[in-house]
Amino acid sequence: MSFRSQPTAQVDETATVGDGTTVWDLAQIREDARLGTGCIVGRGAYVGPGVLIGDNVKLQNYALVYEPAVLGDGVFVGPAAVLTNDYFPRSVDPQGKLKRGDDWEAVAVLVDEGASLGARSVCVAPVRVGRWALVAAGAVVTRDVPDFALVAGVPARRIGWVGRAGVRLIERADEPGVWECPGTGELFDEKDGELMERA
Predict the structure, then answer these.
(1) Residue 99: inside a domain, yes or no?
(2) Which pLDDT value is given to residue 132?
(3) DSSP letter assigned to residue 138
(4) What is the pTM of this model?
(5) CA 23, CA 9: separation in Å to the nearest integer?
(6) Which has the closest alpha carbon to 120: 47, 186, 74, 61?
(7) Exposed e or buried b for every residue in 108-138, given b needs 16+ CB within 10 A?
(8) Residues 181 and 133 in one domain
(9) Tag placement on the chain: N or C end, fewer CB within 10 Å?
(10) For residue 103, what is the DSSP state?
């Protein structure tokens, strides 16, 4: 496979990196991680062992993606964003003994196609971020985020909806429950706290 890696980056020999992917300075891709084609791994970003990353994903500088995270195609992870993997983090067990890899069970953050995580946001595993959702900068995600949801705050709460273009949707005055993207004109229907694209 043909990918580009800067001399100061560390890409484990067991990792799979797709064609056209670029790994920048000081980034680390651990063993058995799999990255798709056309990805960008920014300076100082970290990809944990066995993490699965789709095509055309952008990990900005110092983003931390801990195993066993799974990122779909077209996902954006902003600068210094963190995807955690330990719901009950402790350095030591109840007896004071240093915990090792076998002393806890890693849990995943799942980020679906096209979703974006803003700068310095934190996803506390286990959690799923839905398709084309947008997590605001600095938000702390502690529960699942629906498709197309715009969430912000600590803990993150839905404050609106966004379309594929990332633009905040506007509810049509003449049709309650129908949302329109001012950028693309696409229409969406809201029902029971979920948003669906019109065919």
Answers:
(1) no
(2) 98
(3) T
(4) 0.95
(5) 7
(6) 61
(7) bbbbbbbbbbbbbbbbbbbbbbbbbbbbbeb
(8) no
(9) C
(10) G
131 Cβ neighbours under 8 A, 6+ residues apart: 72, 112, 113, 114, 115, 147, 148
d(CA 168, CA 159): 10
DSSP codes of every residue in 61-98: TT-EE-TT-EE-TT-EE-TT-EE---SS--SB-TTSPB
Q: Is residue 98 part of a domain?
A: no
- Two structure tokens written together for 100: 């090792």
64 residue type, one letter:
L
pLDDT, one tens digit per residue, over 125-142 is: 999 999 999 999 999 999
Model pLDDT, residue 134: 98
- Which of these, 78, 71, 79, 85, lies nearest to 33 by C-alpha position? 71
In a domain, 125, yes or no: yes
Residues 156 and 170 in one domain: no
Distance between CA atoms of 87 and 132, rounded to whole angstroms?
25
Q: Are residues 58 and 145 in the same domain?
A: yes
Tokens of 101: 């890899």
Residues in the chain, pLDDT under 70: 1
* Full domain range(s) for residue 46: 4-91+104-162
Radius of gyration of the CA atoms of the chain, in A: 18
- Asked whether residue 119 falls in the same domain as residue 35, the answer is yes
